[in-house]
């Protein structure tokens, strides 16, 4: 046991994880191993995953529990935090606060696994369909995006203007500041395009109408959050779950697949697989396109850098460089998407004029 505790201390900074698990859960620690961003612990009552828990995640995990309770009626299982013996969702350690989740056996998806990715699309359709009748009061903007795209995107544009001013007025500019100033006009233009396109398509009213087909999104789709199990695929890491229309999840899944393959055509089989379970309305193709237009990666890096000050100057520059590369590469998908949708599904997706 001493060796296990020494390893855990090195990995997490926690000197007595065994005591914490026994006190809060009545579990006897038997072994531990870091695995894909979590700590897998074997106990006398089975295996669990321990994840860092941040204060702002309390609302999200509460939402996850509500949604999980609803979708299990349709046979869809979402892992939720194991409550402590005191009824809490998380427990304090000596170094950080944590959440304990049931362990899910499986293997992460390969970088390119066509059959697996098609299965993810079908699985995603099942989840979205299971949420179409879900109702809840969600007040936090971090969780509630349904009917708020215009508001959130305009707020993001306002923040970008502030960040641009901060970079411009910096007494001693860092590489991040110069890089942001060089790309700020492009990012501002893309936000403006996304807002105008959404308004022409029907705006947030259209999003509210389309929510009858699904109103909760996983929010963080990529291969590391997909497990191949004996029963099929399973989505993990639900701490980014948001209330929003399915076009949001679909757009981000298609962007991810395109980024991994470099082939705009990949969106066609993925959408076909999705629609084999749950067909899309023609208007939803336009909502997907609006999501394509918004520079999500750049906005995220700017917020983490200038508002939350999460990165060092060097880290921030590297993250923004990567975000700019992703957004510029995405232009090919934006150009090809309307034609692909017309050819494959006989639907009209108006193009942005300058593209």
TrEMBL record:
Q: Where is the Aminoglycoside phosphotransferase domain?
A: 40-277
What the entry lists under InterPro entries is as follows: Aminoglycoside_PTrfase (IPR002575), CotS-like (IPR047175), Kinase-like_dom_sf (IPR011009)
The superkingdom listed in its UniProt entry is: Bacteria
Q: Which Pfam families match?
A: APH
Q: Please list which residues make up the signal peptide.
A: none
Instruction: Name it.
Output: Phosphotransferase
Source organism of the structure = Polycladomyces subterraneus
Recite the lineage of the species: Bacteria, Bacillati, Bacillota, Bacilli, Bacillales
């Amino acid at each position: 046991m001493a060796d296990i505790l020494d390893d855990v201390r090195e990995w997490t900074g926690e000197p007595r994880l065994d005591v914490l698990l026994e006190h809060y859960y009545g579990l006897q620690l038997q072994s531990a191993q870091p695995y894909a961003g979590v700590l897998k612990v074997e106990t006398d009552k089975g295996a669990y995953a321990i994840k860092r828990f941040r204060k702002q995640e309390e609302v999200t995990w509460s939402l996850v529990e509500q949604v999980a309770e609803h979708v299990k009626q349709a046979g869809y299982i979402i892992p939720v935090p194991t409550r402590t013996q005191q009824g809490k969702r998380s427990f304090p350690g000596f170094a950080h606060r944590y959440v304990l989740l049931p362990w899910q056996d499986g293997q992460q998806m390969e970088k390119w696994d066509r059959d697996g990715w098609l299965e993810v699309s079908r699985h995603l359709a099942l989840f979205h369909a299971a949420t179409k009748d879900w109702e809840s009061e969600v007040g936090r903007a971090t969780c509630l995006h349904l009917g708020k795209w215009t508001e959130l995107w305009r707020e993001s544009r306002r923040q970008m203007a502030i960040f641009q001013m901060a970079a411009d007025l910096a007494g001693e500019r860092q590489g991040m500041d110069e890089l942001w100033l060089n790309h700020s006009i492009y990012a501002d233009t893309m936000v403006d395009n996304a807002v105008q396109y959404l308004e022409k398509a029907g705006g947030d009213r259209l999003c509210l109408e389309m929510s009858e087909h699904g109103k909760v999104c996983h929010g963080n789709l990529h291969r590391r959050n997909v497990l191949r199990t004996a029963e099929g695929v399973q989505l993990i890491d639900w701490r980014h779950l948001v209330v929003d229309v399915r076009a949001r999840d679909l757009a981000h899944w298609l962007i991810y697949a395109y980024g991994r393959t470099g082939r705009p055509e990949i969106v066609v089989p993925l959408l076909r697989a999705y629609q084999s379970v749950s067909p899309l309305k023609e208007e939803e193709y336009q909502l997907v396109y609006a999501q394509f237009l918004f520079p999500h990666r750049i906005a995220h890096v700017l917020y983490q850098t200038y508002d939350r000050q999460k990165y060092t100057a060097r880290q921030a520059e590297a993250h923004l460089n990567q975000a700019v590369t992703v957004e510029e590469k995405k232009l090919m998908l934006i150009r090809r998407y309307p034609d692909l949708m017309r050819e494959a599904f006989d639907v009209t997706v108006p193009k942005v004029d300058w593209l």
